Amino acid sequence: FAQKITWKMASSWPAGTQIQWAADFFAETVNKTSGGRLEINSYPAGKLIGAMEVLESARMGNIDVSHASPAYWIGKMPAGALFGYLPFGMEAIPYLTWLYEGEGMALYQELYARYDFGLVAPCGIIPPEDLAWSNKPIVSMNDFKGLKFRTSGYWGEILSSFGAAVIMLPAGDIYESLQRKVLDAGEFSIPSMDKTLGFHEIAKYLLVPGIHQPSTILDICVNKKSWGKLSPDLQEIVKAAAQATTMRMLTNSISKDIEALKFFKEKGVKIHYLDPKIQKTMYAKADDLLKQKAAKDPFIAKVWASQKKFRTDYNTYKNLMTPQFE
Amino acid sequence: MSGDIIILLLFIGLVIGIFSGFPAAFILGGLSMIFGMFFVGPGIFGHFIVRLEGVMTNYTLLAVPFFLFMGVFMEKSGVAEKLFNAIYVWCGKLRGGLAVSTVVMAMLFAATTGIVGASVVGIGLIALPAMLARKYDKAMACGAICAGGTLGVLIPPSVLIIIYGPIVNLSVGKLFLAAYLPGILLGVIYILYILIRCYIQPEYGPPISDEEYRIPLKKKIGLMLTSIVPIGLIIFAVLGSILLGVASVTEAGAVGAIASMVLAACNRNLTWKLVRDACMETLKVTSIIILIAIGAFYFSAVFVTLGGDDVVSKLFLTLPIGKWGVLIFMMVLLIILGALIDWMSVLFIVIPIITPVAAKLGFDPLWFAGVVMVNLQISFLSPPFAYALFYMKGICPPEVKTTDIYRGVVPFVGLQMLGLLLCIIFPKIITYIPSLFNL
Amino acid sequence: MGILNGFIKMADTVSEWSGKITSWLILILTLMTGYEIIMRYVFNAPTKWCFDMSYMLGGAFFVLGQGYTLLLNKHVRIDIFYSRLSLRGKAIVDSVFYLIFFFPLWIVLLYLLIPYVYESWIVEERSMQGYWMPILYPFKTVMPVAVFILILQAIAEFIRCIRTIMKGNET
Ligand code: NA
Ligand code: NA
């Protein structure tokens, strides 16, 4: 007779949003499949701890599990960007293939090695984000010049090199600042998330596709002591639930994004697809930027080389195996 | 031990601890640690570390020192004196005219400062000597100053609102707009009260002498313009920069601070010593607020971990008094707590607990926040624990007794409750202005 | 007694100076934010650094003056009953509460903050909020420093309480 174990899991996602769906789905799956032997209570950001505090909290043991994205921790592990999301990074299917079947998983474990977690595992992936909500149409390269754009990280660096006036504000202020026109443009997340937060109410224009974030990997980190207390079969249940969440999060998000984009159109949002030429120009810049980063950080260099090699192989495969009849 | 009993013990501990007189912030922190260690385990310290860091990196809270800084400069800028002189030449002839001038000045002053301290001190130093010299009733004089000064925390900008917004996940800009009409309403209620009271009992506020009143109209208008324009510019600097999209609310605080420094410089009051004192004053008040915030965040870490929010929510939702009964219960609770303990502890601890309950009962979040903010500003005036009174004591000449102050504020506390009731009965008072801006 | 006097004096001095120096941060923050708004609104060229610097200096401003505020006895007390106590009664309440409610929390917190911040130095942690991505460990180090100053001042206050209880002759 095993004693019932209760875990606290805190995530970086606001309550009621599509990304929190992944955290809740994972917790529910574990609770059901373990027959109640392991119960995970899922707390959205701000309920128990703040969004950016979950990793340290799981490490220190004030929670058992964190649910976030490796890209959130680039301040602590610069290579995290390559495991979460990267401007002009891979889309979901190749990304997952690299991660689950290629060299990705070993590198991913290496990323977290010094934090000494019981388990780190991908647990959700999301499709491309919205590139920008804006008060001005963004069509040409020139439209980026002087554009007051709220974003962060590598994408901020890339945009500013194209003359955008990148503004730093807390993520929670994006909505209000767009509304009051402190910002000309800003990005937040995938269409279904942005719909929940009501971005269509305050911005006329929506720019796609999410070249700055073609996909985003979410993951769980389990405190070492908490992990050690699980019997081997419970450990397998947690691992399997994480994998199941990854798949369901992708399909669930795509289906909700289809609805969200339809909804935006009905609401009169002007949706614009960014000229592929501009995308290519920006891609070259992103490539340069990553070269610089790789030159400074051997682990980034190693991961990036692995991803580049995989992408070449995958593209060959894709070109041969993608049917074109529609 | 069942969860309900632990939560009950936690509250009992809180009451005993807070009324011991030991600094409230330390009680909150210490109590959280004790309950956390016993019922959660050593992991609770991890919460304390990340919450400390969370407070320190909180960009919205940064508006607090900015608006405090601005308030100190407004208090010392010499604006209040000019304004008072300009207003009372118009209404000095009325019975109670000086007290009315005080409230009018307080309303304008409130629109340039975010704290009660700056308002009460800034207004009191000018208006109290003027009223005492003209044989106003001491209690009436003190009441008008304290109540008027308290508007400083309701009429935007307001430190109370800046802290309130993030706690309940509402935009501070929106809450600012929601607070205008309630603030003006209270001011108007005070003025009506003073006029009626002094009309019936002229000894409360005798009209000023004819000689003093006989000032040419041209001069009166000149006085008015030279005093209103600078205030108008300050209001425009803060609100304009928010509404026109020049700055976020946090940044608007800095804009206001710079504008008020410029104003003090124009009045030749900006000295090196003033800047140094303003920095120091801002540091002290910020430290007080932040330490309570840290203690309260520790408390809520333990409270939520122990499932306290569910316990309280269930308790409220099962009360057999209906939606409006629960609302009235909450209002009474807030008034009692506001009289007994400081507004920050109430705000940081009680508001996160009752706000989700109100949402579940189907109250409009913006309206509910507005009602609670009106309620919380009562706490600045309601004795025994009332900041407006503490500041008033600090600036009173010896002939004004503490009992005069207490006697003076009681009718105004009643008027605040009347204002609160009106906001509950006529929700438009809160929601109308935000709706104009499509918020 | 000489050592204790020396300690109190030292704690008071540390608190006072930390408060005085920290207080200037608000002026710097105000001017910095004004500069950022002008750069953004007039020249359409927002700075890369202002946002990160704001919360870092702001965070330091929040906590580094806590010791000084304690020295000035400014922290809010609900003194409805407390104010009726004699000096000795107040000292008894304060010293007991310092022992139970203050020292265990803040001393353990300081003890745990040191490895927490050390970790940040080791990984050379950078801020991830903006795209300037400045180093974060000096900012994190503010936490243990502030807590240390607060504890130091609390010890001084505690010693003062004990002296009042023992009805010392000195002031
Ligand atoms: Na105000
Ligand atoms: Na009160």
How would you describe what is shown here?
- Chain A contains twelve helices and eleven strands.
- Chain A has helices at residues 18-33, 54-60, 80-84, 92-100, 104-112, 153-161, 174-179, 191-196, 224-228, 232-266, 276-296, 298-321; strands at residues 5-11, 38-43, 65-68, 119-126, 132-134, 148-150, 165-167, 185-186, 205-208, 216-222, 270-273.
- In chain A, 53% of the residues are buried.
- Chain B is mainly α.
- Chain B is globular and about 75 Å long.
- The model of chain B has no long low-confidence stretch (mean pLDDT 90).
- In chain C, 73% of the residues lie in helices and 0% in strands.
- In chain C, helix 1 (2-23) crosses helix 6, helix 3 (50-63) runs parallel beside helix 6 and helix 5 runs antiparallel to helix 6.
- Classes of the chains: A alpha/beta (326), B mainly alpha (439), C mainly alpha (171).
- Chains A and B meet through helix 2 and helix 7 of A and helix 3 and helix 14 of B.
- Residues 110, 113-114, 152, 155-158 of chain B line the site of one sodium ion (NA).
Present as ligands are: sodium ion
Question: What is the count of helical runs of chain C?
Answer: 6
Q: Can you give the helix content of chain A as a percent range? A: 40-55%
Q: What is the spatial order of strands in the main beta sheet of chain A?
A: 7-6-8-5-9-11
Could you give the count of β-strands of chain A?
11
Order of helices and strands of chain A: EHEHEHHHEEEHEHEHEEHHEHH
Name a few traits of the molecule.
heterotrimer, A: about 325 residues, alpha/beta, six-stranded mixed beta sheet, 12 helices, 11 strands, about 45% helix, B: about 450 residues, mainly alpha, 21 helices, globular, binds sodium ion
Brief account:
Chain A is α/β, with parallel strands linked by helices. Chain A has twelve helices and eleven strands.
Task: Compile the SSE list and pairings.
The complex is a heterotrimer of chains A (about 325), B (about 450) and C (about 170).
Chain A: E1 5-11, H1 18-33, E2 38-43, H2 54-60, E3 65-68, H3 80-84, H4 92-100, H5 104-112, E4 119-126, E5 132-134, E6 148-150, H6 153-161, E7 165-167, H7 174-179, E8 185-186, H8 191-196, E9 205-208, E10 216-222, H9 224-228, H10 232-266, E11 270-273, H11 276-296, H12 298-321
Helix pairs in contact in A: 1-10, 4-5, 6-11, 11-12
Chain B: H1 3-19, H2 24-39, H3 44-56, H4 63-76, H5 79-91, H6 97-110, H7 116-133, H8 138-150, H9 159-168, H10 172-200, H11 210-213, H12 217-243, H13 249-266, H14 272-305, H15 308-318, H16 322-340, H17 343-360, H18 365-378, H19 387-395, H20 402-425, H21 428-436
Helix pairs in contact in B: 1-2, 2-14, 3-14, 4-7, 4-13, 4-14, 5-6, 5-12, 6-7, 6-8, 6-10, 7-8, 7-19, 8-20, 9-17, 10-18, 10-20, 10-21, 12-13, 14-17, 15-17, 16-17, 16-18, 17-18, 18-20
Chain C: H1 2-23, H2 25-41, H3 50-63, H4 66-71, H5 87-122, H6 137-165
One sodium ion (NA) binds near residues 379 and 385 of chain B.
